[in-house]
Amino acid sequence: MKRTLISAAALMACVLTMQAQQRNEIQVPDLDGYITLKCDFHTHTVYSDGLVWPTVRMEEAYREGLDAISLTEHIEYRPHKDIVADHNRSYEISQKKAKSLNLILLRGSEITRSMPPGHFNAIYLNDSNPLEQDNWRDAFKEAKKQNAFIFWNHPGWDKQQPDTTLWWKEHTELYEGGYMHGIEVANGSLFVPEAIKWCLEKNLTMLGTSDIHQPIQVNYDFAKGEHRTMTFVFAKERSAEGIREALENRRTAVYYRDVVVARKDLMLPFFEKCVDIKEVKRTDKAVTLQIVNKTDLPLKLKKTAHDTSLVYFRNYVLQPHTKHTLTIKFENGIKGGDMNFEVTNLLVDVNKGLDYTIKL
Ligand SMILES: [Zn+2]
Ligand SMILES: [Zn+2]
């Protein structure tokens, strides 16, 4: 009897461990020649103003299906006075756990200054300690010296930009000096349309991050299918170097709520990999298509043709992992045409979804 109890307890422990390790793979497509890595380059732990231990961030990231993470503690803001350590400590504590979970852990720090220039993350650092400088320009110089990838965090944060998201002359200085390689388009629940415009105009990398401070489930309800704000990185290989190459070549997408933001040249193949579209029936009066959405994303279609001859939906949502049969009618004697729509939640510019045409 005693033995049975022990076995049951052991089994229970095993089940609990398995539950703790359960990984939710995010179902979005790879592109030809690239794998889609799910990354969060902006998080905090107790080593700055966060509320969790560094290894817990690794467990969270694993469970949510992330491939890469960076713990970007504030250099200049560390309110937990009981915790005394240098700026590399949370990275060092997490290394073993990250490795055991096959997560790519990037050393990073948040340069935390008043506006201008505001907050910036430097990732791919070798040593975070030299970023502690009196003058913010010296902190950027040190990050650049270490060949860090540097991006502007939450440019639309109302605490620093109370009514308008401004680009200051200091940002021109950083951009022109090679100290700014990307901008956060989304940070947690904050969405910054201006950042999309700046990234497109200035050829900067678009990023989405959680900037999580709390335990992750405090900010996101996973039972409702929510996910943290993150970056999809279209990388040639699943490694720190692979991510770096993709970041430098601007191959990213921002995943915020049910919206994805990316450059058009990436979004077009991305959408085409999200769906299977095939013609299943054709008569003189109509054509029937079968469309399968293979992803976790809803795909929101909006008609963009003011044409009464080709009759199809005005708005149509392909919910995640669903199959649809759509009949498009021919009027006025036509036998085919262009079915034009915009995918309104796959943004390629400010308030502009991807335009797509199915030739019928
Ligand atoms: Zn910040
Ligand atoms: Zn932060």
Give your account of this protein's structure.
This protein is α+β, with helices and mostly antiparallel strands. The chain has two domains: 23-262, Metal-dependent hydrolases (TIM Barrel), CATH 3.20.20.140; 274-359, Immunoglobulin-like (Sandwich). It has helices at residues 2-20, 54-63, 89-100, 136-145, 169-176, 193-202, 216-219, 240-248, 264-274, and strands at 35-43, 68-74, 104-112, 119-123, 149-152, 182-187, 190-191, 205-209, 230-235, 252-256, 259-262, 275-282, 286-293, 299-303, 310-311, 315-318, 322-330, 338-349, 352-359. The strands form two sheets. It has a 15-stranded mixed beta sheet that branches. The termini are far apart. The model is unreliable at 1-6 (pLDDT under 50). The site of one zinc ion (ZN) has 4 residues, from loops. Residues 110, 119, 153-154 line the site of one zinc ion.
